[in-house]
Amino acid sequence: MSSLTTADCSATSAVTVDSRAHAHRPASAQGSLFDSAELPHGLVYQPDFLSAEEEASLVAEVASLTLSEAHFHQYRARRRVAMFGEGAGDEAGRAQDDGALAVCSPFPPFLSSIRERVAAWRGVPVAHFVQALVTEYQPGVPIGWHRDAPQYGIVVGLSLAAAARMRFRPVDATGPRNPSFAIELAPRSAYVMQGDIRARWQHHIPPVSRLRYSITLRTLVKRVATA
Ligand SMILES: O=C(O)CCC(=O)C(=O)O
Fold this sequence. Notes:
15% helix; binds 2-oxoglutaric acid; alpha+beta; 12 strands; 4 helices; four-stranded antiparallel beta sheet; eight-stranded antiparallel beta sheet
């Protein structure tokens, strides 16, 4: 495999099919549609996935990475990212036309460890998590509405250093009066997106108030489907 710099791999988002997933309704879920209902299939939220010690160690590791501005077509997003493993799609969450995957830098040891933990949690072979994306949000930086690129399968996100609110809306209902809901992503928490929440919903994070990092791990649809 050839190796590219992480700056060559500033991609994002996706879709999946894993019927094992069942949505959990976080206590912090808010929104008109889901006040008395389950969250959409495929969304799982796990507070305190990481200990405080693990979080501190991960923050030190990610703070030492060389990060590059993420790109949205010809525009630069204000998020800064480093991608490891394999990358697909663009910052809008759209797949590349040819479905090609870029090969990025290999996982550093600290991300290999967290990949093992996440894979064990989800009951998925470690090697299926082909990508790790580290994202830095300085205060005031958001991520816009998107779905992750369709080549990706399961998406797992870990939140570090500060909380953020993740909002969701149906892909076919983007007006201000359409149903939406939000979950609070506490530091040290993990979320999973697969199934309906990936295929039928968009998500975004409004500007954060404090420096936040996230680690996003992704599988590929084909490799999960043939497992
Ligand atoms: O920071 C996060 O947890 C969300 C990241 C995200 O949605 C993405 O990279 O596509």
